[in-house]
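Exam revision sheet. Question 4 asks you to relate a sequence to its structure. Input first:
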Amino acid sequence: MNYFKEAEYILYNYSKLCIALNNLKTRKSHLIWGSAPSGKISTGAACVGSGSNYSNNAEKDLTELNQTMANILITENKINEIDSLLCELACEERAVIQLWYFEMITKENMLEKLNIGSLDSLYKKRKKAVGDFAILYFGAVALNLKTAE
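Answer key, structure tokens:
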């Protein structure tokens, strides 16, 4: 396994995880409010029994709500894990990762924002930042990053 590439994959997808979390929370709200009783009072017999549409829809809605809530928890945990690991990095490494993987600004703007003199230096700092993140994420197996990339 190329731990450097795996770490990059995680970092590139961090922003998508944050968007996904918001989408999941919106879906959860829609499921809760969309399946709530409509407020209409029935004067006739209520729909009862496992064969009714109401029962099937309610079961489907509950299943989807449970799955959505599980996905929210998994996504929140992954985001929190990544956030915690990023906090363990040096400030400059966090800044490089933030600009490179999350904001995806141009390399020239990165040089200016980070006060780095050359693209070569920027690439070295990125490699070190991602390498350190990989070690924090994967543990000792990621120590052999010298041949990564």
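Marking note for examiners. The two ends are 12 Å apart (CA to CA).
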